[in-house]
Amino acid sequence: MSEIAEQNPTNPGLNGQEQTRRSPLLSLLGVLVGIEALLVTVGAVYFLSRIFLETPENLSGAFVIFVITLIIAAGLIATAIGTFKAKPWARGSIVTWQIMQFVVATSFIQGIQAWQPVGWLLIVFAVGTAVILFTRPVISAMTAEK
């Protein structure tokens, strides 16, 4: 009987438990990773379209690049979902992707002049996401420190 009396009828989700509020930085991190996943997915579709719109020198190589990009996009989508659910494994995936993204961005900056703005944008995304990932609220939300 006392257990029923302790329940909070105005907020049945509480029921005597402390409700933790999601950090806005964690939500921002999820949004950033989601945007990165969307951009990689668009890149995969672009690679696929190039296979059909142009005659590639190496058809199997072009298809392999498309499949690899699609696998990376799927991994980023899973990472974005894991970030919104504050799963600890998502932190390692995010760090790994930001390093890879930074490497790709530097090659864009050193390459063709028209792709340099894209490279700088990717660097801003990579550094910004990494900085948010290592803030105290995000670390607390995504580790056992809860």
What does this structure look like?
- There is one protein chain.
- The chain has helices at about 1-5, 25-55, 60-85, 90-110, 115-135, 135-140.
- It contains six helices and no strands.
- The model is unreliable at about 1-20 (pLDDT under 50).
- Helix 4 (about 90-110) runs antiparallel to helix 5.
- With about 150 residues, it is mainly α.
- The longest helix is centred in the N-terminal third of the chain and has 30 residues, at about 25-55.
In short:
This protein has helices spanning about 1-5, 25-55, 60-85, 90-110, 115-135, 135-140. The protein has about 150 residues and is mainly α.
User: End-to-end span in angstroms?
Assistant: 31 Å
Portion in beta strands: under 5%
Question: Which regions contain 5 or more consecutive residues with pLDDT less than 50?
Answer: 1-19
Secondary structure category: mainly alpha
Share of residues in helices: over 70%
- Write the element-wise H/E pattern from the N-terminal end onward: HHHHHH
**Count of DSSP E strands?**
0
Shape: elongated
The major beta sheet can be summarized as: none
The radius of gyration computed from the alpha-carbon positions, rounded to a whole number of angstroms, is: 21 Å
Average pLDDT over all residues: 85
- Counted by DSSP, the helix tally is 6
